[in-house]
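B., you asked whether I could sanity-check this one before it goes into the benchmark set. Here's the sequence:
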Amino acid sequence: WTQRVCSLDAYVDTPWREQAQWWGDARVQAKNTFFLSGDTRLFRRGIAQIGAQTTPDGLTYGHSPTIAHSCILPDFTLIWLITLWDYFWQTGSLEPFIEQEQKILRALRYFQTITDPKTGLIGYDKRFWLFLDWSGLFKEGYPTVYSLWLLIALEKLASLFDCSGRQGESRELMARAGRLRKSLSLLIRKDGLLWDGFTFGGKIVKSTSIHAQTLAVLAGFHPEHNAIRVEKCLLPLIRGTSEPGPAPSSYWITHVFEVLAASGYGADVVDFIQRKWMPMAQHGTTWENFAPCHGDESFSHAWSAHPLYHLMEIIGGIRQGAVGWKKIIYQPHFLGSNAEVSVPTPLGIIYSSWRREGRSIQVSLALPKGISAELRLPGIAPKIGRGHLSWKLAA
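And here's what the prediction gave me:
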């Protein structure tokens, strides 16, 4: 319901307050929509609207339309760049990427201008609002989180250039990403966690954030350290045993869920959602923060409606595995007594259901033509499946 009421003529942050098309919000709202209806029109239109308003530096505004200087968020420009990949991943279409190519290149040149020649990381530009998240993250220097977003954007764009037959541009961006990876490697602690960045004076900021560890996993940055990042930072937060550093907001925690679910900790994610989102469910809409307490905070914010798709991925077991949904990874977590899920894709609707019956679990999966599934079911050897499938598994 929250996703629907925040989808007007554009994705808006809330139908109650400024009703602005904030692009960090919109990225989450788009994925919500992909799992809810499969409709990409608001997302496609928003990509064009954000690209239509840029500063002389090449930055996009944090939302569109606006003329407010205070609404220029360089990290939301990086999010906008990444959403060009998101659109391609969902639809298989390069059309918006090709349309926005010159805007993309201008934005990337801006991030070259704020790259520190000593550390190799991008830095806080005092002219603009560096958001990153509603938390106490380190920002006024060369933040690790900021450069990790740039790393993800560079590699996603390199893939888009490659897919569009522009191998020269792809290689150039991958080389730039390689240099950034090398610079970020200077911030790896002995235990594999990442420090939070460098000060303007070049000193290491000796704190570690959940945000940095999460993005490191998503960026494939030194994956040999992923287990310690999950076990030392992400799981303690989700399980409530400790809060190592600034806690992600109800918006940003979607990235933590993504990492944990892919790492086999879907049950922990579902338990956390039950604890934190039950008050929202009882209220009827999802909130701007976990516990809004001020008069100007929203009780209808679709940037925190992401359990819509996390639950479908975890309990329903349907996780996208290839561009345009040509492949999925099927791995349901059998939490509770039964589940039924339908996920719309460009190739048709995927249906998944399972039910506990005595000492067995009846499972069925129906795939449209053109979609294959990498099957990861307990007691069954991994294989590729197509069409209509069913199993009887031991409970």
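One thing to flag: The longest strand covers residues 348-357. Otherwise nothing jumped out at me.
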